[in-house]
Amino acid sequence: MSDEDAVEVETPESDDAAEADTTESSDAAEAGAADTNDATAADDTAAGDDTATMGDADDTTPTDGPSLADRVADHDAELADEVAELEAELDERRQEVDELTSKLARVRADFSNYKERAKRKRDEIRERASEALVERIAPVRNDLLRALDQEDGSDIRPGVESTLEKFDDVLADEGVDPIAPDPGSEVDPARHQVMLRVESDQPEGTVHEVYEPGYEMGDRVITEAQVTVSAGGE
Hints:
Helix content: 55-70%
Oligomer: single chain
């Protein structure tokens, strides 16, 4: 066999091999494209599933509960009710204050009227007491006038003494007592007014003599007794 025959024989085998390689490459390319398409389809499917899931999730959001606007409206209604209750309570308190103010005004007026009535009553009692005292003193003054009407040279001492007794009786009935300390008694600054100190046979610092008697009514000193006080002997 010549070299040309050998070449001719080998050529078909080379062509077959090339065709085989081309076929294999084409098949591989087609397989790769198929894989790519499958992957893309898988991704699209997954994305679709996610979208569907999100849609389902949105669709499953509860729609039977109150909305925000409803809750705000309910809250405003509750506040309005509370405000209405507070205003009603405030009105009640204001009414109570008005009633108490009115009662206080009436009490003040009643107390003012009571003081006025008590003052009038005291004045009436004082007037009646003064009238009664004048009624009892008037006869004493009349006795003094009769004593002065005696003729000159007549002894009027008994009449004056009798008149003084009557006057003392009137004062005693009115609760008035004379303040006339005895000589030698202790000086009471609340009841005695010391006029001067004199030499005396009485103990030093004691009453020597009553210059003018005082008067007291109950525990109240009306006028103090004017006295002289012993400065002791020589």
